């Protein structure tokens, strides 16, 4: 399975970057699916030292409806505009 991936946004929180979140636009070339992938790794340094990490697939429309306009939302909008930009749009009219 080949995955084409483009990072949209990443965050690192905490004094030692113990809460990492990354959102990427992913195209699965086998299934022909396009989606946003959220990957996280959170480590609790104050208590038991346990960690919580994983990934989830989010439909693009669902991702765009999530709260706020993050850098990831703005980057996805930019990529979508590029896809639908007409090359000679400024020369028309």
How would you describe what is shown here?
It is a single chain. The mean pLDDT is 85. A hairpin with a 4-residue loop joins strand 2 (19-28) and strand 3. The chain has helices spanning 60-65, 71-84, and strands at residues 3-13, 19-28, 33-43, 51-58. The protein is α+β, with helices and mostly antiparallel strands and 93 residues long. The protein has one domain: Nuclear Transport Factor 2, Chain: A (Roll). Strands 1-2-3-4 form a 4-stranded antiparallel β-sheet. Helix content is 22%, strand content 43%.
Which features does this protein show?
Nuclear Transport Factor 2, Chain: A; 43% strand; 2 helices; alpha+beta; elongated; 22% helix; 93 residues; four-stranded antiparallel sheet; 4 strands
Order of helices and strands: EEEEHH
Task: State the shape.
Answer: elongated
Please, what is the oligomeric state?
single chain
The largest sheet is: 4 strands, antiparallel
Structural class: alpha+beta
CATH T-level topology: Nuclear Transport Factor 2, Chain: A
- Number of folding domains? 1
How many alpha or pi helices? Answer: 2
- Give the total of beta strands: 4
